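In this supplementary section we document a worked example of the pipeline. Step one takes a protein sequence of length 286 as its only input; no multiple sequence alignment statistics are reported here. Step two produces a three-dimensional model, which step three serialises into structure tokens for compact storage. The input and output of this example are shown verbatim.
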Amino acid sequence: MSLFRVRDDLPTLRAPVLIGAFDGWIDAGGAASGAAGRLAEDAETLATADGDALFDYRSRRPVLDVVDGTLTHLEWPQISIARRAESDRDLLVLHGPEPDFRWRELAEQVMETAVRLGVVEWMSLGAVPAAVPHTRAVHVFGTASSEGLLLDDVEQGPQGLLRVPAAALSVIESAVAGAGIPTVGFYAQVPHYVGGAYAAGTIALLEQLGRHLGVDFALGDLPQDALDQRQRLDAAVGSDGDAREYLERLEAIAGQDQLPTSDELASEIERFLQQEAGGEEPPRLG
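The serialised model returned by step three reads:
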């Protein structure tokens, strides 16, 4: 049974690239799903996935609209591929909630769909919580299936072995790379104390993606959202001594000439989480 329904009347695509982002895992601050959602705005849908086969509706329930006591509309979680036409190429955006089931089947069928559509490159978008301060520019690191795919000033990392729980998006990227399609990934580091959507992370991903593709993406209201959130965070830190002290430690790490080691970052995060579990209330800012 096919998990993807692809339109029969597909348009002729120009050097299409496939950009993937799911909400959920590796989507700290909603930065990646926010970027994908903006790219897919007003785009035409080329393919949709079978939600009944992919989602546990008890953990990701459809949204019900009730108007004046009448059930009027159900909005179901949906994964789709949308086409955004640029001046000399087409951007295909695979987006939606991270699926609960059948990851390997989905990855295989996305790969087959990518081959069928003539995709020339895959790009993953993600965001990870990190011990970084909101007062610094959002850092974006990259991954690549082979050398030479990333711009020279993009840090490819992390270096060495990093063993983490996999995301569905990474499973799909691996399948696409296995078909011989070049793949890259861009991951924004989001301050792990920030609650809610982090507009600065979305901006950083869109700007890095635009540089890679040679496209200027309109940011709309995102810069104002980022400025408003920065002001709220600054005010929250300014009114809390513990939060100020914690932010100063993060700024000291970020101000070092060399990037902190993974052990140093892990120690900071572990200390912060221990505070949450041990009764010493840490700063949690929104």
